[in-house]
Amino acid sequence: MGLPVLIIHATGTNRDAEAARACELAGASPHIVHVNQLRAGTRQFSDFAMLVLPGGFSYGDALGAGVRQALDIHVFFHDELTNFIESGKPVLGICNGFQTLVKAGLLPGPTCADRHRDEEAPSTERRAVTLTHNKQNRFECRWVYLAVEQGAKADCLAQVEGLVFCPVAHGEGNFQVSNEKTLRQLESEGLVAFRYVDADGLPAGGRYPLNPNGSAGDIAGICNRAGNVIGLMPHPEDHVVPIQNPLGGNEGLGLSLFRAMIEFASS
Amino acid sequence: MVFRIEVSSRSGKDEPTITAAAHRLGIHSLHSCRKSRLYFLTNHPEKALGSDEIDKLCAFLLVDPVTETARVTVENRPQSPAVAAQPSCDSPDHVVEVALRPGVTDVAARELERGAEELGIHRLEAATATQFRLTGKLSRAELHSLARGLLCNDTIERYNLGAIEPIFGHSSESSDLVEQVSLTGLGEEELLECSRQRSLSLDAREMKEIQSFYDEIGRDPTDVELETLAQTWSEHCVHKTFKSTISLTQRSTGGELLPTQEIQGLLRTFIMAATEKVNRPWVRSAFVDDAGIIEFDDQFDLAFKVETHNHPSALEPFGGANTGIGGVVRDIIAVSARPIACTDVLCFGPQDLPPGELPAGVLHPARVEEGVVAGIGDYGNKLGLPTVNGAVIYDSGYLGNPLVFCGAVGLLPKDAHPTEPQPGDRIVVLGGRTGRDGIHGATFSSAELTQATHMESGSAVQIGDPITEKGLIELVEAARDARLYNAITDCGAGGLSSAVGEMGEKLGADIELKDVPLKYPGLTPWEIWLSEAQERMVLAVPEANLPRLQELAELWDVEMRDLGSFSRDGWLRVRYGGRAVAELPMAFLHDGLPLPHRTADYNAHQPQQPSLQTALNREHAPPRAKEILLQMLGHPTVASKERIVRTYDHEVRGGTLIRPFVGPHMDGPADAAVLKPIGTWNNDRAFALSVGINPLLGKRDHYAMAVSAVDEAFRNAVAVGADPDRIALLDNFCWGNPTLPDRLGALVMTCQGCHDAAVAYNAPFISGKDSLYNEFDGQPIPGTLLISAIGIVPDMHSLCTSHLKEPGNLLYLLGETQDDLGGSLLGSLLGWKGGDPPKMPEAPLKRYRALHTAIRAGLVQSCHDLSEGGLAVALAEMCLGGRLGASVDIFAAFGNDLTHAFVPLFSESNGRLLLEVAPEDLIRFEEALAGLPFAPLGTVTQTKMLTVQQDGQQLFELPLDEIEVAWKGSAAQ
After folding, report:
1. Measured between CB atoms, which of A75, A128, A237 is closest to B66?
2. pLDDT tens digit sequence for B370-391
3. Three-state secondary structure call for residue A190
């Protein structure tokens, strides 16, 4: 039995099966669990060593990507999830999962100061980053190159060798910040995890379609201050075996991200 | 008290597409347009909403603090802003607000109500709208035409110049009204008038049959019964044209009259007959279930279905295409399969049509395309299904009646699909609630469109709710694996009436309509029974399994309701609050329809046309090959569809091995998609999806169109690695009014072509659908046949793609090129109607088997099929995809037999593919294709140039970047 990984399925989640396959190939034991089972208490966060919030359109994203799932987290799982995160267990949010973590205020997460200032105020209100509509103003599906940010707080990412090559498939993946200061702060605190780059690993520099959605600073993924919560828009779970690579070859597997996080969870 | 919340972008983002579209409409004074979302909130009078609660809703659900601001006002007191109010920063000259009409699914409002519930704000009622803030000096008339032409679709939406009044949830009165409709003594005209008034789409013979049935049993029909009969007997549900006897009168090409032929049903004579003759053991189900089923591997089968949703898409492009995908996916769920992929083939009018030429009552083709593409993407993407294969055809013949073909594939374990409901089984409905939406969809699609349809048939059009359907997918899969049901079908056309009527055909059924969960009160019994509200499935469930099914339904958040049971007395009994509102023998419902006898004419005689040379000589400046090629590459039907295809997720489920675009820049056109289903990675099997369609050729010769469509779909599947002995076909006919002999004659010839090709290729038809009455104001669409193919790829490690791979490799042409320019793209560009249409290739299966052997042996580096535009277009596409050049001499392949260089370059003969072969594989390659017509053409080059010679004489040179600009519309990054 590998490491037990919790993959949450909310109504409208659709990349859970691929995330499970990626975890399996990386040596873990994934369990796809419906939000309703967690709410009913028949399955519990604490039974698992890692959490994946997979891609999809939770609740149809009818009020904005990830918004309703973020509310679920706030209303039903706030304490359990906070404990899970504070215990240092890894959490990975992909696409809709990333949007959910951002909108729930869990990524990049509150600063220490915030936590003590006002426990009651909804963390969403303090949010200084968001994922909004693509600059092209439409859903787009295409393969992109990702580079792990040097010095990211998520140490385990150092295990990811070379670039990750995998598809994006989203309409609201445009990472934006309240102001320039927020961006600098994310960078200086090591909270940027992935950036869009070209095939040689050089910055996309905002150029479409290398940066497929207009994200500020070419940011494709971020992490929290403790380094154990990671979110990204592209889909590493869709490139776990070389035959999925549209350009052929053995490089750029997204599987390496799952391996790195599962290894981190085991240690 | 009603709160109104306006949510706007902080950056004041413009909507340049709206401004540009307004300018195309001739409204040039619109400078800019900004969009805001509007939410209207109210709740139960006992407990008014407080500003705390509004704050909370804004923070958690409505406003993104980074990108948006909100302005909250209390209804009727706009001067007293409530909480979080911020003055609007821009001051538009005009405001137009648009909201959905009552009864149209408003998913955002529903999710808002559910979210509020989670936040402890109970019994909130929500409505949504969109605000457009316009700057520029616009007259009232211009504002109205902008609203109607661009901002609002009258069919499902309403608008106001200025603030719109919200309408919450329901508005109509409850009613259990059942009408008795007296038919006694009515003459033919009066019967027809009754059919027309109630939109029954029944003809005089059918109405008389119903009249005499009720005369016999001695009572009047209820409206529920009449509506049930009309739905069950509609063209859409029963396909009477394909089942009827047809007398065909033909004139030969020489103009002589041939003896009249009697055809005992098109479906039986041509389509099913081919499947029987071919008799492939791997066909699991053909023409019986909601989808065709073939064997995939030892454990799994594959289901495939293609549907059309043309009339709804003409009226409301987004909703029509949206629910088209929803409908075909439910056909897959209805064979107990897990949907795993979608396809789409679209036919539109010209995108650059000047607004002045737009007929009244028609949406502009650009608006139709935009809506349809968004509708397909929205539904497929949200279901998590990769949309991987398709085509887009542009022709002025589709102006008033676009075509939207939606396909879906599913995977199911062997023998997992139960099809025998038992007496006593409960009739269980799962999924979405029933509303007044979609009423008369079946009869509406069995009538022609006219200018007035737009106004009259609003209720036939719906917006989909993919997330409810996603729940159905999960729930039915779980119920199937637990073996909880004995039969399953979807609520498609005709709603519950057809689902229950069909499932209980051999048993009888007793159903209570008062138990049907409704979106809002006020539906009469016949409306509940007929409603085509989306996202519903009907199951026959043994009573003992109900608790287990209920548990699963709760887990997957799907609503479930027990409506009655199947009986054994052969009667359909529909009740409302216990009172019978319809009592019909199943035998009359299903077998009472008098099949029509139809007459068909076909005239194969063509007036004498000039030869190609004569036609070219008549041109002022005869066009040159290079110019024609560039024109072809830029022709909307041929040009890259990347702007459309990229808005579909083609990667989800992680099994897409050949995508719509291939090559180092991932922008060359693929011949077919190849998919590996999740859950089957323990073996190397995959499957291919491809299409064949050529309405242009149909304008010249319908038989040739059918043969060519089969060949195209088939060769595309083989080109990527499918086994030619494991390819199954689907036929979809979109045609005009079949009661007119000329339309029907062309349809007969097309079916004949389908039959002959299927037999020649040894490929069974496993499913199909016809959509008739595709006419606008009496003008038929070009008769259109879509052939979709699904083929097993034995080894996912030996696939082949279309882009050139390596300089120095050799290029070969497989197949004979003949003077087949009739109905070609070249003919259409030159306005020349001469030439012979393409024929069935000689022994086609033999060449495809040899090619497959060569591909599996790794002897083919790239492979691309020749279709519209022939060799020249195929070569250009291969070069572009691989970012490599090619140098070819057509003399080697064709000699000088052909009268004009345009023939080898642009002829559209069937059965041809271009192949790239590495020099070291040459001997083995030639051995593999021994005895087949193939010839060397030239080599792949490093220089980014396509060079074409004829016997050493250069015909043209075309740099890659010119190809790119022509095909992609602009040079890429």
Report:
1. A128
2. 999 999 999 999 999 999 999 9
3. coil
